[in-house]
Amino acid sequence: MKRLGLLILLSGCQLVASFDAQGEHGAQCSDGVDNDGNGLVDCADPGCAGTMACATCGNGVVDPGEQCDDGNTLAGDGCSPTCQLEAAATCGDGIVQAGEDCDDGNQIDTDACRNNCTVARCGDGVTEAGVEQCDDGNTVSGDGCSATCTKEGCGDGVVEPGEQCDDGIDNGSNGDACNSDCTRAFCGDGVVNSGLGEQCDDGSANGSGDPCSATCQTQRCGDGVVQAGLGEQCDDGANNGVGSDPCNAACQSERCGNGVIDTGVGEQCDDGSANGTPTDTCSAGCRTRFCGDGVLDSGLGEQCDDGSSNGTPADSCSATCTTLFCGDGAIQAGLGEQCDDGSNNGKASDPCSASCTKLQCGDGVVQAGLGEQCDDGAANGTPGDPCSAACKTRTCGDGNVDGDLGEQCDDGAANNGKPTDACSATCQKLSCGDGVLQPGLGEQCDDGAANGTPGTPCTATCVLETCGDGVVQSDLGEQCDDSNSVDTDGCVNCRLARCGDGFVEDGVEQCDDANDDNTDGCVACKKARCGDGFVEAGVEQCDDSNTANNDGCSSACKVETCGDGVVQHGPAVTSLTFEWLASTCATPGAIAFTIDGGPALVAPADPETCTCAPPGGSQAVEVTDPAALALIVDGPNTFGVDFAGADQFLGWADVFVHFSDGSTTAIVLYEGLPGAALGKLQQMCDGGFDDDVPPQAVTRALSVGEQCDQGANNGTGSCSASCTVVP
After folding, report:
1. Which residues are CB-contacts of 716 (< 8 A; sequence separation ≥ 6)?
2. CB-based burial of residue 5 (10 Å sphere; 0-12 exposed, 13-18 middle, 19+ buried)?
3. What span, in angstroms and rounded, lies between the C-alpha atoms of 556 and 547?
4. Is the sign of the CA dihedral 439, 440, 441, 442 positive or negative?
5. Alpha-carbon distance values, 39 to 24, 34, 215, 582 (Å)
6. CA dihedral sign of residues 518, 522, 524, 528
7. Count of beta carbons in the 10 Å neighbourhood of residue 472
8. How many CB atoms lie under 10 A from the CB of residue 101?
9. How far is CA 503 from CA 144, 195, 479, 510, 604, in A?
10. SS (HEC) of 261-317
11. CA 557-561-563 angle, 5° bins
12. d(C-alpha 643, C-alpha 463), whole Å
């Protein structure tokens, strides 16, 4: 097979066109393009002969996609109009074949053409939808389905077995003797058939006690028949409720308590069962109850009832049956009242007492509402008595000097005790030395008899001794007094200036923040700086009292760590020693040491001795594995130990980091008892062993020599993440 190709190269070396000497084929036979350049397009090209795009059903040739081609496009000859093989003729294919009455092309058995291709008919056992009501496979009537395939039943006018009657559409109509269920209508069937003369029909309940009689006639009061079951006590027919007839219109016997006023038997009232109840105006004997009948009816609001005596002067019951009493607002002289101001009796401003007697000054009762301040009875106004004859209290502040009451002065309530008044609120004369501060009288202080004595800040003339007066009052705690309020000299508030007093002393202090905190911007009253030995919070990461590099803390007080881009020339880690004291009561577990999460050592613990002092004592392992040593980095390192688990006991654990300069750093990871780790304590029976100790972790900054440091690029090139040169 030869292939003729024309290749045109453009920028990027792209293949633009290629012609196939084989001719058009496949999808090229329907794209409308002369793909092989022979002047023939699509199906005109010989190469497209027999392709799907150029195939034709009925040409007598079985082309791709055709199952057959009999040279025509007729159906029913074994090859369909689309050149597909046809199945053998069957019932339901929509074609009436020999032996078929019909063929509607479906499998529905209830239409006009059955599934066996026979015409549906009454009696074939299948109910034809929309045509038949039933089809029981025969044409015999009387079996529930008639000879015409309609349902037989009550209402069809034919009395069938089990029916008592059947009047067709008249069943159940008024006056018809046949009910709608084809049973005969009768009195007692529970159906009112007025056409048959029934007024009612309660079925089996008809008769005694029911408003419907056994003959289906309505029973009622006034029909002359006593229906006890209907609540009738009597029934005199048309005479009910007439004249002296003992039976009323409601068929109830006339009697007191029946709720009907029977004047013929002398009733004045009748409220039925309410007669004689507390709030009812009708008595149990059907007599009207009223005020003045001599009977106390509290339910009717009567407070009393003295009959004809009601309202007389000496009687305590009024004409309206209310009880007369002190406080009702009416003066009952016959009852011994001197006054009666009703609800005001006994009130503060009322001259009538709660017992209806008149009140006055000198009766020994203080009537504040009447302006009395006091009332000592006959003692009013006598010497030594604090109550005047006018029932006014003699008190300090009334402007009268009552010497018999111990007053030394009295300038009235408006002046006594005022700042500029010499008379106190207790009517005692005021002066310097009485222990009462009188600013209005020019006093700055008054310590009484202590004025002017050592340690007392008040002078004998009631003037305060204060800081700034130029006199050092050592007994008052003054250390100095330079007669000024300057806070930046050597005397601050009469105390010698010092670092931490909150005031910057000129020429002595650089700052003073009133605290001893060495992590803020002011340290020992000097401004914080890198190299002062104190780590300034938020500013410095470290401060080792110098500004040298390569000692773990840089000259800028930043922690020197692997990854900061600066090679730290410190000592190298030569080995690690792990020590521990552990015991187990379970299957021997392993103790695991880690550095920054990486495994440094995994070793078996005490082999199931379950003692607080294992026979082998503490254990120690020295590690020189470069992979483990490489876990130590310059800067913070987190060391961990894990011996957690039930019945696993840990006494202590530590690690020693050995450096090339001969130094060693000890790191305690866990101690059951303080000092147990570094003291190598072997006996820890008194609470030193703890069961199921959770994993422990301790972070310690170490200064470790680096071989390299490429900052953020560590671990991606020739320098590892731990600042060692990658081979």
Report:
1. none
2. exposed
3. 7
4. positive
5. 11, 6, 114, 97
6. positive
7. 15
8. 12
9. 121, 123, 16, 10, 63
10. CCHHHCCCCCCHHHCCCCCCCECCCCCECCCCCCCCCHHHCCCCCCHHHCCCCCCCE
11. 125
12. 77
| Amino acid, single-letter form, for residue 86 | E
386 pLDDT more than 80: yes
Strands, DSSP E only, in 483-550?
Answer: 491-492, 495-496, 522-523, 526-527
**d(C-alpha 49, C-alpha 38), whole Å:** 15
Banded model confidence at residue 546, pLDDT cuts 50, 70, 90: confident
Angstrom distance (rounded) from CA 680 to CA 654: 10
pLDDT > 80? residue 292: yes
Token match 């004047």: residue?
263
pLDDT value of residue 264: 67
**Concatenated DSSP letters for 385-450?**
-SB-TTS-B--TTSS---GGGT-S----TTTTT-TT-SB-TTS-B--TTSS---GGGT-S---GGG
Query: CA-CA distances (angstroms) from residue 540 to 49, 531, 565, 567, 702?
Result: 90, 10, 18, 20, 17
The pairs formed by 619-622 with CB atoms below 8 angstroms and a separation of 24 or more are 619/579, 619/580, 619/581, 619/582, 620/577, 620/578, 620/579, 620/580, 621/577, 621/578, 622/575, 622/576, 622/577, 622/578
| Residue 562: closest CA among 631, 639, 658 | 631
The label of the residue with tokens 């000890």 reads 666
Burial letters for 113-125: b for 16+ Cβ neighbours within 10 Å, e otherwise?
A: bbeebeebebbbe
Residues 43/54, Cβ–Cβ less than 8 Å:
yes
* 3-state helix vs strand vs coil in the chain, percent to 5: 10, 15, 75
The whole-angstrom separation of Cα 466 and Cα 478 is: 10
Can you tell me the distance from the alpha carbon of 614 to that of 580, in angstroms, rounded to the nearest whole number? Answer: 11
Chain mean pLDDT for the chain: 84
Both tokens of 595, joined, read: 């550095």
Predicted local confidence at residue 525, as pLDDT: 92
CB atoms within 10 A of CB 583: 25
Secondary structure E strands in 512-647 = 522-523, 526-527, 573-584, 590-595, 598-604, 619-623, 635-642
Residue 293 structure tokens: 């009948």
Q: Fill in the DSSP letter of residue 122.
A: T
158 CB-contact burial (10 Å; exposed 0-12 / middle 13-18 / buried 19+) = middle
> Phi and psi for 476 in degrees, rounded to 5?
-100, 5
How far is it, in rounded angstroms, from Cα 631 to Cα 702? Answer: 12
Q: If you search the block for the tokens 């009552």, which residue do you land on?
A: 402
For residues 595 and 628, give the distance between their C-alpha atoms in angstroms, rounded to a whole number.
8
**Average pLDDT in the 194-207 region?**
85
Q: Which residues pair with 492 in a beta bridge?
A: 495
CA distances from 437 to 430, 432, 450 (A): 9, 8, 13
pLDDT at 6 over 50: no
Q: Please state the φ and ψ torsions of residue 236, each to the nearest 5 degrees.
A: -100, 25
Nearest to 698 by CA among 626, 638, 620: 638
By C-alpha distance, which of 468, 496, 495 is closest to 482? 468
User: Hey, what are 590's tokens?
Assistant: 């392993």
Q: Write the single-letter amino acid at 704.
A: V
CA geometry: angle at 82 spanning 77 and 85, to 5°? 50
- Contact by Cβ (8 Å): 219, 211: yes
Residues 675-694, mean pLDDT to the nearest whole number: 86
Q: How far apart are CA 310 and CA 292, in angstroms?
A: 7
pTM for the full model? 0.30
Only one residue has tokens 């130094």, namely 663
CA distance 65 to 365: 132
End-to-end CA distance of the chain: 59
What tokens appear for 642 in the block? 């894990």
Instruction: Report the C-alpha dihedral over residues 298, 301, 305, 311, rounded to 10 degrees.
Output: 160
